[in-house]
Amino acid sequence: MWNATVLSLFPEMFPGTLDFSLAGKALKNGIWSLKTINIRDFSDDRNGKVDDVPFGGGPGMVIKADVLHNALRSVSNNEGPRIYLSPRGRKFDQQLAKNLSKKNGVVFICGRYEGVDERFLISNDIEEISIGDFILSGGELAAQLMMDSIIRLLPNVVGNSEVLLDESFETGLLEYPLYTQPRIWNNLEVPNILLSGDHKKIKMWKTKKSEMITKLKRPDLWEKYIKS
Ligand SMILES: C[S@@+](CC[C@H](N)C(=O)[O-])C[C@H]1O[C@@H](n2cnc3c(N)ncnc32)[C@H](O)[C@@H]1O
Questions:
Q1: Fewest CB within 10 angstroms: 16, 85, 170, 197, which?
Q2: pLDDT tens digit sequence for 202-224
Q3: Going by CA atoms, what residue is nearest to atom 17 of ligand 1?
Q4: Ligand 1 proximity of 142 Cβ (cutoff 6 Å)
Q5: 191: number of CA atoms within 13 Å, CB side?
Q6: Residue 162 has pLDDT above 80, yes or no
Q7: How many whole angstroms from its chain centre is CA 214?
Q8: Phi/psi zone of residue 197: left (φ > 0), alpha (ψ -120 to 50 degrees), beta?
Q9: All CATH 3.40.1280.10 domain ranges in the chain, comma separated
Q10: Residue 180 CB less than 6 A away from ligand 1
């Protein structure tokens, strides 16, 4: 079983979106488990204060190192890599999702406010991961996003595992266009080749379309693809 452990000031946000569809079914079927830890439970302040103003000035509040450290110490070392969701981290991608799906699990640390005291990150073996070049109000949505893409890679989550091999990024290319019934809709026809039953030609068509789309929409991926 793959174990997600989440440290958050808002544990009630979980499982959130992960309670639905594929991930929700997999949770009920015991393919993955979820443990949430409320960071506030580790405050030694009478009023449960977890943050303070930043040294050196600046806006907002910073989550205290000792509170986070104590919260993390309540998690066993075997629960997998410790990840702090952070805009300045390495960018999350499909390859990282694959790597993380092969671990026992992942410990997600969700920041809030201006972020966390740097000494907490230095003192613990923590990797910073970003889900993109934009700022969220907290790490919870980022953790759910990462969990969703990891969970669908776990064995027996996606019914037909061929689906996973055929998806965007799997070959370094984006996905080809998809069509379903009816054959003509809004005066637009399904390309004839897809109705031909000639699997070899269909495969070639799909590759050609994937290449065209990647070149057009993601020149950065296309560059990598032709170099590899
Ligand atoms: C308002 S943000 C803090 C932003 C921080 N002051 C900065 O400028 O980089 C609060 C929390 O949201 C999470 N967060 C925000 N944007 C994120 C992103 N792009 N990827 C992952 N986590 C993010 C982090 O956990 C962060 O501590």
A1: 197
A2: 999 999 999 999 999 999 999 99
A3: 87
A4: yes
A5: 12
A6: no
A7: 22
A8: left
A9: 2-151
A10: no
Record the pTM: 0.94
What fold characterizes domain 166-227? Trp Operon Repressor; Chain A (1.10.1270)
CA of 109 to the centre of ligand 1 (A): 11
Q: Got the DSSP string for 31-86?
A: SEEEEEEEGGGG--STT---EEPPTT--SS-EE-HHHHHHHHHTS-GGG--EEEEE
134 in contact with ligand 1, CB cutoff 6 A: yes
Q: Where are the alpha helices (DSSP H) in 102-192?
A: 118-123, 140-151, 162-165
Going by CATH, does the domain composed of 2-151 fall within 3.90.180.10?
no
Please tell me the total number of residues recorded for the chain in this structure.
228
Regarding the beta carbon of 139 and ligand 1, being less than 6 Å apart is answered: yes
Nearest C-alpha to atom 18 of ligand 1 is from which residue?
87
Question: Residue 44 corresponds to which tokens in the numbers above?
Answer: 């030694």
Q: What is the pLDDT of residues 51-107, one digit of tens each?
A: 999 999 999 999 999 999 999 999 999 999 999 999 999 999 999 999 999 999 999
